[in-house]
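Dear U.,

Please find below the material for section 3 of the report. The protein was modelled together with fe (ii) ion; I have listed the sequence and SMILES used, followed by the predicted complex structure.
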Amino acid sequence: MMFAASSASSASSASLVSPGLSPARSSADPSALHDGTSAPGEARTDAPAQCARTAALAALCEADPATKAAAARTLYADVLEGRAACSAHLEFAEPAGLPGRPARPELVDPRQLTRRGMQSPQGRAVLLHALAHIEFNAINLALDAVWRFAGMPAAFYVDWLKIAAEEAYHFSLLSARLAEYGHAYGDFPAHDGLWDMCERTRADVLARMALVPRTLEARGLDASPPIRARLQQAGDQASAAILDVILRDEIGHVLIGNRWFRHLCEGGALDPYETYARLADQYHAPKLRGPFNFEARREAGFDEAELAALTALAGLDASPVAPAEAAAPATPPSADS
Ligand SMILES: [Fe+2]
Ligand SMILES: [Fe+2]
């Protein structure tokens, strides 16, 4: 369980470190990594070779998707094995042109994207490409949380490096599957909605936690079961199996978002419900709409009051929505990572 008492206490004690005051190697302390989602005790106490936040920014700048994905996975392994650590106090000037990305896919308005049925191989390739693009953006988003927000507890950076590594894995799974359809990432146009929210929340870590993992990624939890069902109906078991892996990991990402959102609310003596509503309004978050994956959202740390609010919104009863019961979404994949 990720919200064990030891996790909460290590996070709150680490939060006392303020920007500019924390020692450069504070995250090399194994206790600081004891967050329940990372690998407690695995970091060594000897001096790390590199700052993982600096390396995260370098990976974010990388334009080649495969190289970026490999860098994200290597970086998380380096932190777990003590070859890198996060210097929480460092503040970086933002380089121009973030995030690094390839010349293709062409980025267009979402309304310009063609939608195709999943019965045809071409339609499934378009879907897999859209999902790969979401994962590519999700790598960027996770790396961005690591370099951008100084003064957070060490466990925050490790959590987001873990997410970056898992998004990179998702991207590689989808790219490989796309290749089996004779396509590559970049072959179809895409939209930029996920990075757009990243930019809007660039100056506010609380808003970032509220609106990226626990809003956009949580929408992915809702969207995943019906997409998976349609792939299975089309006979594409291999792609459906990838969706299973992604859903499993995304529950963990939303859980991390919930955890840090609540941690920041507690630190600022903010009511989490009112704060979420205020931020959603202020930053023009997409309106939530059902059907909701209550089971996954519960697992991802939304509490009963939040689930009840969604129930009211969706006009549904409070019982969890089983994947088979979830209606196909009105629009094609809106899973946001
Ligand atoms: Fe993902
Ligand atoms: Fe994610």
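For the text of the report, you could mention the following: The longest strand covers residues 50-51.

Regards,
Y.
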